[in-house]
Structure formats: C-alpha cells, structure tokens
Amino acid sequence: MKAKWILGFLAGMLALSPIQPAAAAEEQAIEDEIIYDVLVDRYFNKQIQNDYEVDALDPAVFNGGDFAGIVDQLLHVKEMGFTLLSIGPVFASDTYDGKQVLDYTQLERHFGTEEELKNLIKEVHEQDLKVMVDVPTQNVSKDHIWATENPKWFTGNEDGTLSLDTANPEVQEALILALSEFINQYDVDGLRLQDADRLDSGFIEDFSKAMKDIRDIYLINDVEMKPAPGLDAVVLPGAEEVLRNSYKQFDRDTSKMPAVLKESEGNLIRMDSLRSSRFIADVVEERGFPPTRMRLMLTQLLTMPGIPVIQYGTETVMNGATLPESHQILDLAVDEEMIDHITNLNTLRNSSPALRSGETEVLIEEDGWIVYKRFNDKETWIVAINNTSSTKSINLPADVIGSDKELQGLFESDRVRQEANGEYRISMDREIAETFHVTEETGFNKAYIAALAVVYLVFMVFLWIVWRKGKQRKADEAAKKLR
C-alpha cells in the first residue's frame, strides 16, 4: 500500500509541478543514471542448451545464468526504476564472473549466442533502459588467445592470471581494435573498464576517444580512483567505506559524511560492489537488523549527489563476506518490502532534477542524525535520516525553507508547517528516514469553507421555515378547536 501511495503522490506532484522525469529529457547525462549491476551467470537461468557442466550448488563455478534469463526478468529491473543495466563481462572466460578472459572476439558460451545478446540489448532498449558491458584486462586467463603469440604483452599475477600491459602500443592497438569491433556489432550504451587504476592513463584517453568516435557511449570504471581523462565517471575514493561505517549500526560516527556529500557530485557512489563483500555482511557482524540498515542506507545513497551503483541482490538483502559467497544466484521469492523501497526512491530520483544534480546543503550532522537539503531553482527537498537510538528533532529557519511553505513527507506521511516563530520543526523517531518535498502551504481552502457556510446558512433557513410552518399549523389547529 505504501508503494502505491507514494507512486500516486509522485504522479500527482509531477502533474502539478515543474518537476519532470529524467526520461522526458531529450538527452540523459551520466548524472541522470541509476545503475543496476548484475553478473549474467548469477541472474536467471532460462536456456538449458548452454548449461555446459554447470552446478547451481557450487558458488565457485558456472551456475547457469544467461542472456535469455536477463531478458526474462528484465521487467524486474525496469519496474524498480533503474535506468542503466550493467551486465558485467560477456567475453569468453575461464570463470563465471567473466574476469579471466580467453578471447575478446568471442562471447562466453555459457551466457548464450550472438543473437541472444543482440536480443537482450534490443529488449533493454525497448524498455527505455541502457546496457553496459565490463572490459577486464588485468586478470585475464593464462590461456588467453594472445598469450602464446605475444607473451611480452603480459605480466603474471600471483593467482596465476595475466595482466595486459596497457602502456605497450601493440596492446593498446589490439584492445582498441577488439572493442571497436564489439561495439560496432553490439549496440551497447557503455563500457566499464575494470581495474582502471592499473591501466596506462594515455591508453584510457585514447581508448575513450576511439570508442566515442564510433558512438557516444559512457565509459566508466569499477574501482576507487581520481578522475581520469576519458572516463565519464569514476568511483569516489573513500565513499563506500564512509557509507558502510555510517549505517552498519546506529549511533555511528558520521562526521565524514558532509565531505562525501560534497565530493560525490559527478562520481559513482555505492555501498558495495561485485568486487567486495556485501554491506549486509558488515551489518550481520555488528548484529544489526538488516532490513532497517538497508532502508536507511538506500535512502542516503539514492538522495545524495552522484551516480548510484546498486548491486543485484540488494533488493533481497543479499549477504556475503567474500567471493564467491557474495555472488549468489538472485532469489526473487522474497518479501517485496525492500523492492518497494528501492522502487519508491528510484521513482523519486528519476522524477527530480534536484535530487540527481542539484545543490546540497548539510543542515545538521550529529553521530547518525543527518539532515540535508537538495535543491535547484525550481524545487527543494529536505532529507532527514535518524540513524540513532533516540528521537531527534531540528528547527529549520525560514531562510532555509522559505516562508509560508510546508514539508510533505513521502514515506512516513508527515506534514510539517511553519510555526508561529517562523521555523519548521522536524521530529524523527529512531532509525527512521524521511524525504520531504517543500511546497507552498495549502492552508485552509477558502472556497470550500465559503461553500460550507452557504450550505449551513441555507440549512438554518430551511429549519426556520419548517419551524414557522409547524408553529402556524399548531395555531390553526388550536383555532379550529375553539370554534
């Protein structure tokens, strides 16, 4: 019920306000995207024809997920409000996660055929979504097709895999050629360079130019690093640690959060990744309650600046402290409460330019009690997150909110009006998050009150007439008796 109420509220808000969905824009920028991150093998197994020696009970090997399986469950991604689907590496590989690439010119046979990948991309686009593919270069298979003829292109890793030397001009040329052919053949909307912090900076810039000369696609990375020429966005260094430390339990030190909010603009932000343990693993270690922890974390992540990257399984509160434990098969036979929460937040973000790329002002931060303002010249939101063990309050002056306004809460249905002293008082119970939309104060409906007054007056006149007629009738009856 709450999900339907919020979606209905947003629909009405959009109809009456200048806020417009991101999809309505003529051209979306990377800042407008919300990325849903999956591994093909761990999403959904649709085709048995490509189940070559799979074992769904062994998390270290191929489990059977394929391109057709993503198509089958694509509406799940669409309905949650994500705008960009990242499907991980798709090239022939020794491993289920696609990292140990064997050949950049061949698709992984467990995932499906060329036709099935093209169909996946077509279906994604028909849902008004975008699709992105990962490009691993630093942990490829020792049996990579280039390794025999060009051993000098590689350096060895401790785990037995190989890393391509992207400072080598021949390697640069080979990678640019292989990926140029790939994006010419497959209409993907973006590439994500894995381990970009280990790549030659000149290669990244040249690679980006070559790809974007073919088609204007996104190029991002998957590890924390400083911005680099050629990359549209990078993972903000330190943000994941700050977010996880702040929300894995209540009454946490959040003193670093204002800096993260300030620095996150234009960067990729996340609570965990396909490279790391799940956020829920931290929660379990701290003996926290996973659904509450996740709701607060998602409210923070999806209302702050930056480009959110959310892993598959977040909606099912997936756990996992190490790989491959954190790469479980997606199980959608779960309570839909978290799915609804993600849907509501994504819908809100997609509908609001201020939440995607507006300015940010932190109003208070006190060990888990954080309130901040997201705004542009057309709309204002107040986000209040009480991640503490007690009720918290804040009085916001009129110079922050404006005069004669009201704050409409979307999740707890709170409505805050300006008090006699000119301030707006927000009170939040423990472990609760709320997003307030600042609107003009509705006050009393004068026309409605006037109409009520008229009805009341007519009714009173009607009663008076009835009373007079009744009194006259009694007088007439008494006169008849006297005759």
From TrEMBL:
One of its GO terms (molecular function) is hydrolase activity. Keywords: Hydrolase, Membrane, Metal-binding, Signal, Transmembrane, Transmembrane helix. InterPro entries: Alpha-amylase-like_C, GH, GH13_cat_dom, Glyco_hydro_b. Residues 1-24 form the signal peptide. Its cofactor is Ca(2+). Residues 37-349 form the Glycosyl hydrolase family 13 catalytic domain. The chain crosses the membrane at residues 447-467. It comes from the Bacteria. The keyword NADP does not apply. This is Alpha-amylase family glycosyl hydrolase. It comes from Planococcus shenhongbingii.
